[in-house]
Request: fold
Amino acid sequence: MALWDDMAGAKVIDLAHTYERGMPVSPNHPAYQYSMMRRHGDMVRSDGGSAANEIIVLGGHVGTHIDALGHVSHDGKLHGGVDADSSQTNNGLTTHGIDSMEPIICRGVLLDIPAVRNVAVLDGGDEVTVADLEAAEQRAGVTVGKGDAVLIRTGWATHWNQVEKFRGQVDGAPGPGEAAAQWLADREVRVTGAETIAYEVIHPGRGHATLPGHRVLLVESGIPIIEVLDLTALASSGTAEFLFVASPLKIKGGTGSPVRPIAVIA
Reply:
Protein backbone atom coordinates (compact mmCIF):
# COMPACT_ATOMS: atom_id res chain seq x y z
CA MET A 1 0.00 0.00 0.00
CA ALA A 2 1.31 3.46 -0.90
CA LEU A 3 2.07 5.85 1.97
CA TRP A 4 -0.66 8.28 0.90
CA ASP A 5 -3.22 5.49 0.74
CA ASP A 6 -2.17 4.30 4.17
CA MET A 7 -2.76 7.80 5.59
CA ALA A 8 -6.04 8.45 3.78
CA GLY A 9 -8.12 7.85 6.89
CA ALA A 10 -5.81 9.66 9.30
CA LYS A 11 -6.96 12.54 11.48
CA VAL A 12 -4.92 15.75 11.29
CA ILE A 13 -4.78 18.08 14.32
CA ASP A 14 -3.49 21.63 13.89
CA LEU A 15 -1.06 22.59 16.67
CA ALA A 16 -0.65 26.27 15.74
CA HIS A 17 -2.35 29.47 16.81
CA THR A 18 -3.85 31.87 14.26
CA TYR A 19 -1.75 34.91 13.35
CA GLU A 20 -3.83 38.00 14.05
CA ARG A 21 -3.40 41.63 15.02
CA GLY A 22 -3.09 42.13 18.76
CA MET A 23 -2.01 38.57 19.51
CA PRO A 24 0.41 37.98 22.41
CA VAL A 25 4.04 38.69 21.53
CA SER A 26 7.17 38.66 23.67
CA PRO A 27 8.39 42.17 24.56
CA ASN A 28 11.73 41.13 23.06
CA HIS A 29 10.26 40.76 19.56
CA PRO A 30 8.37 43.00 17.09
CA ALA A 31 4.59 42.78 17.11
CA TYR A 32 2.67 41.12 14.30
CA GLN A 33 1.38 43.59 11.70
CA TYR A 34 -0.92 42.88 8.77
CA SER A 35 -2.40 45.17 6.17
CA MET A 36 -4.28 44.68 2.90
CA MET A 37 -2.18 46.38 0.23
CA ARG A 38 -4.59 45.76 -2.64
CA ARG A 39 -8.29 45.13 -2.26
CA HIS A 40 -10.72 43.53 -4.67
CA GLY A 41 -11.91 46.30 -6.94
CA ASP A 42 -8.80 48.48 -6.60
CA MET A 43 -7.80 47.18 -10.01
CA VAL A 44 -10.17 45.27 -12.26
CA ARG A 45 -8.91 43.47 -15.34
CA SER A 46 -10.64 43.71 -18.69
CA ASP A 47 -12.33 40.34 -18.14
CA GLY A 48 -13.75 41.41 -14.75
CA GLY A 49 -11.13 39.64 -12.65
CA SER A 50 -9.61 41.23 -9.56
CA ALA A 51 -7.12 40.18 -6.87
CA ALA A 52 -6.27 41.11 -3.31
CA ASN A 53 -2.93 40.90 -1.49
CA GLU A 54 -1.34 41.92 1.77
CA ILE A 55 1.86 42.90 3.54
CA ILE A 56 2.86 40.98 6.68
CA VAL A 57 5.47 42.21 9.17
CA LEU A 58 6.59 39.97 12.03
CA GLY A 59 9.64 38.71 13.85
CA GLY A 60 10.91 35.18 13.46
CA HIS A 61 9.85 34.41 17.04
CA VAL A 62 6.25 35.64 16.87
CA GLY A 63 3.24 33.33 17.06
CA THR A 64 3.77 29.59 16.74
CA HIS A 65 7.43 29.36 15.72
CA ILE A 66 10.60 27.29 15.88
CA ASP A 67 13.98 28.47 17.17
CA ALA A 68 17.05 27.93 15.03
CA LEU A 69 20.09 26.59 16.89
CA GLY A 70 21.71 29.98 16.39
CA HIS A 71 18.94 31.81 18.28
CA VAL A 72 20.71 31.65 21.65
CA SER A 73 24.38 31.77 22.62
CA HIS A 74 26.10 31.20 25.95
CA ASP A 75 29.39 32.77 26.94
CA GLY A 76 29.72 33.94 23.35
CA LYS A 77 29.31 30.49 21.82
CA LEU A 78 26.61 28.85 19.73
CA HIS A 79 25.98 25.10 19.55
CA GLY A 80 29.15 23.17 18.87
CA GLY A 81 31.40 25.92 20.21
CA VAL A 82 30.83 28.17 17.20
CA ASP A 83 31.78 31.81 17.88
CA ALA A 84 28.52 33.77 18.00
CA ASP A 85 29.96 37.17 17.09
CA SER A 86 31.69 36.03 13.92
CA SER A 87 28.56 34.08 12.88
CA GLN A 88 26.21 37.05 12.69
CA THR A 89 25.91 39.62 9.91
CA ASN A 90 23.33 42.15 8.74
CA ASN A 91 22.10 39.41 6.42
CA GLY A 92 21.56 36.97 9.29
CA LEU A 93 23.46 34.03 10.74
CA THR A 94 26.18 32.31 8.74
CA THR A 95 26.01 29.22 10.98
CA HIS A 96 23.02 27.47 12.55
CA GLY A 97 20.47 29.61 10.68
CA ILE A 98 16.91 28.38 10.25
CA ASP A 99 17.57 27.71 6.56
CA SER A 100 19.89 24.87 7.59
CA MET A 101 17.10 23.08 9.49
CA GLU A 102 15.54 20.15 7.67
CA PRO A 103 11.75 19.59 7.70
CA ILE A 104 10.73 17.46 10.68
CA ILE A 105 8.75 14.23 10.30
CA CYS A 106 8.99 11.90 13.27
CA ARG A 107 7.16 10.22 16.13
CA GLY A 108 5.46 12.75 18.37
CA VAL A 109 4.75 12.36 22.07
CA LEU A 110 2.40 14.53 24.15
CA LEU A 111 3.22 14.90 27.84
CA ASP A 112 0.13 16.39 29.47
CA ILE A 113 1.24 17.94 32.77
CA PRO A 114 -2.13 19.35 33.95
CA ALA A 115 -3.60 15.86 33.53
CA VAL A 116 -1.12 14.32 35.95
CA ARG A 117 -1.55 17.19 38.42
CA ASN A 118 -5.35 17.04 38.20
CA VAL A 119 -5.72 20.71 37.22
CA ALA A 120 -7.02 22.43 34.09
CA VAL A 121 -3.96 24.64 33.60
CA LEU A 122 -0.69 25.22 35.44
CA ASP A 123 -0.21 28.53 37.24
CA GLY A 124 2.21 31.23 36.20
CA GLY A 125 5.66 30.40 37.57
CA ASP A 126 4.92 26.66 37.89
CA GLU A 127 8.00 24.62 36.99
CA VAL A 128 7.58 21.45 34.99
CA THR A 129 9.86 18.96 36.70
CA VAL A 130 11.44 15.64 35.78
CA ALA A 131 8.89 13.97 38.05
CA ASP A 132 6.10 15.64 36.03
CA LEU A 133 7.53 14.39 32.74
CA GLU A 134 7.93 10.85 34.02
CA ALA A 135 4.43 10.85 35.51
CA ALA A 136 3.01 12.07 32.18
CA GLU A 137 4.90 9.30 30.39
CA GLN A 138 3.45 6.70 32.71
CA ARG A 139 -0.07 8.08 32.46
CA ALA A 140 0.06 8.05 28.66
CA GLY A 141 1.75 4.68 28.42
CA VAL A 142 4.60 6.05 26.29
CA THR A 143 8.35 6.27 26.64
CA VAL A 144 10.23 9.26 25.27
CA GLY A 145 13.02 8.09 23.00
CA LYS A 146 15.73 9.24 20.63
CA GLY A 147 14.45 11.22 17.66
CA ASP A 148 11.03 12.01 19.13
CA ALA A 149 9.19 15.33 19.04
CA VAL A 150 8.17 15.89 22.66
CA LEU A 151 5.34 18.38 23.22
CA ILE A 152 4.78 19.56 26.78
CA ARG A 153 1.27 20.72 27.59
CA THR A 154 0.74 23.16 30.47
CA GLY A 155 -2.76 24.31 29.46
CA TRP A 156 -1.42 27.82 28.86
CA ALA A 157 -2.94 27.93 25.37
CA THR A 158 -6.31 28.52 27.03
CA HIS A 159 -5.07 32.03 27.94
CA TRP A 160 -4.34 32.98 24.31
CA ASN A 161 -7.03 35.69 24.25
CA GLN A 162 -5.76 37.23 27.50
CA VAL A 163 -2.75 38.99 26.02
CA GLU A 164 -0.95 40.19 29.14
CA LYS A 165 -1.58 36.99 31.06
CA PHE A 166 -0.36 34.88 28.16
CA ARG A 167 2.84 36.95 27.88
CA GLY A 168 3.58 36.19 31.54
CA GLN A 169 5.63 39.29 32.24
CA VAL A 170 3.69 40.16 35.41
CA ASP A 171 2.18 36.94 36.75
CA GLY A 172 4.70 34.54 35.20
CA ALA A 173 4.19 31.52 32.97
CA PRO A 174 4.71 27.77 33.46
CA GLY A 175 7.39 25.80 31.69
CA PRO A 176 10.13 23.20 31.93
CA GLY A 177 12.91 23.86 34.39
CA GLU A 178 16.58 23.25 33.67
CA ALA A 179 16.43 19.68 34.97
CA ALA A 180 13.47 18.87 32.71
CA ALA A 181 15.32 20.29 29.71
CA GLN A 182 18.31 18.13 30.57
CA TRP A 183 16.02 15.08 30.88
CA LEU A 184 14.90 15.68 27.28
CA ALA A 185 18.46 16.25 26.10
CA ASP A 186 19.63 13.02 27.73
CA ARG A 187 16.98 11.18 25.71
CA GLU A 188 18.26 12.80 22.51
CA VAL A 189 14.87 14.03 21.35
CA ARG A 190 14.62 15.52 17.84
CA VAL A 191 12.67 18.62 18.89
CA THR A 192 10.59 19.79 21.83
CA GLY A 193 7.82 22.32 22.14
CA ALA A 194 5.49 23.99 24.61
CA GLU A 195 2.53 26.36 24.70
CA THR A 196 4.16 29.48 26.15
CA ILE A 197 6.10 32.28 24.47
CA ALA A 198 9.38 31.42 26.17
CA TYR A 199 9.20 27.61 26.73
CA GLU A 200 10.95 28.33 30.04
CA VAL A 201 9.35 28.66 33.46
CA ILE A 202 8.88 32.43 33.96
CA HIS A 203 8.56 33.47 37.59
CA PRO A 204 6.14 36.31 38.43
CA GLY A 205 7.63 39.75 37.93
CA ARG A 206 10.98 38.45 36.68
CA GLY A 207 10.41 38.18 32.93
CA HIS A 208 13.04 36.47 30.80
CA ALA A 209 15.81 36.88 33.38
CA THR A 210 17.65 33.72 32.28
CA LEU A 211 17.03 31.00 29.70
CA PRO A 212 18.48 27.77 31.11
CA GLY A 213 16.22 25.56 29.01
CA HIS A 214 17.34 27.28 25.82
CA ARG A 215 20.96 26.92 26.88
CA VAL A 216 20.62 23.19 27.58
CA LEU A 217 18.59 22.41 24.48
CA LEU A 218 19.80 24.79 21.75
CA VAL A 219 23.38 25.55 22.76
CA GLU A 220 24.55 22.42 24.55
CA SER A 221 22.45 19.74 22.83
CA GLY A 222 21.48 21.04 19.38
CA ILE A 223 17.77 20.43 19.95
CA PRO A 224 15.34 22.96 18.39
CA ILE A 225 12.50 24.46 20.43
CA ILE A 226 8.97 25.19 19.24
CA GLU A 227 7.03 27.82 21.18
CA VAL A 228 3.42 29.08 21.31
CA LEU A 229 1.87 25.73 20.43
CA ASP A 230 -1.84 25.06 20.91
CA LEU A 231 -2.08 21.55 22.35
CA THR A 232 -5.71 21.80 23.47
CA ALA A 233 -7.25 19.76 20.65
CA LEU A 234 -4.47 17.18 20.75
CA ALA A 235 -4.99 16.64 24.48
CA SER A 236 -8.74 16.36 23.94
CA SER A 237 -8.19 13.63 21.35
CA GLY A 238 -6.86 11.35 24.07
CA THR A 239 -3.86 10.47 21.91
CA ALA A 240 -0.34 10.77 23.28
CA GLU A 241 1.53 9.20 20.35
CA PHE A 242 1.28 10.44 16.76
CA LEU A 243 3.13 11.37 13.60
CA PHE A 244 4.57 14.88 14.02
CA VAL A 245 5.17 17.09 10.99
CA ALA A 246 6.65 20.61 10.96
CA SER A 247 8.70 22.61 8.49
CA PRO A 248 10.20 26.07 9.05
CA LEU A 249 10.32 28.68 6.31
CA LYS A 250 13.65 28.65 4.50
CA ILE A 251 14.77 32.11 5.66
CA LYS A 252 18.47 32.53 4.90
CA GLY A 253 20.33 33.20 8.13
CA GLY A 254 17.14 33.39 10.17
CA THR A 255 17.21 32.90 13.94
CA GLY A 256 13.71 31.42 13.87
CA SER A 257 10.67 30.93 11.70
CA PRO A 258 6.89 30.78 11.86
CA VAL A 259 5.74 27.17 11.67
CA ARG A 260 2.44 25.31 11.49
CA PRO A 261 3.00 21.93 13.12
CA ILE A 262 0.49 19.11 12.77
CA ALA A 263 -0.19 15.86 14.56
CA VAL A 264 -1.33 12.99 12.32
CA ILE A 265 -3.26 10.27 14.10
CA ALA A 266 -3.94 7.00 12.33
